[in-house]
Amino acid sequence: MSDTPEETIWKGTPSAALDFWLNLGCLLILPIPWALARWIQRRNTLIEITTERLRTTTGVMSKKVEELELYRVRDTTFLQPLMLRLFGLGNLQLTTDDATTPTLLLAGIPAEQPLRDKLRKAVEACRDRKRTRVSELGRAVDADGDAPTR
Question: I want to staple 80 with a disulfide (CB 3.0 to 4.6 A). Which of 11, 90, 133, 147 is the partner?
Answer without folding.
Answer: 90
